[in-house]
Amino acid sequence: MTSCIICGRPIQEEHRFCRYHQNAYEELRKMFDRWEKAYGSMQWHDYLEGVLKAEGTGIWVAEVIEAIKKEYVP
Ligand SMILES: [Zn+2]
Fold it and tell me: Quick one: pLDDT at residue 16?
């Protein structure tokens, strides 16, 4: 795959997304670690739903979550 599955921009070979969506994905992962610690346990998909519904979620992050939910991404 040579382009971002979300927006079609070129990607770095080791990544799934363009740098904008990759940044958003990495932010999501980092925030998940924090939520998991704060709540004791947290399911990845429950977390994604929570972030998607939260106010202030950026468009890049929201697009990454939509892609994950459609199971384009593990
Ligand atoms: Zn992209």
Answer: 86
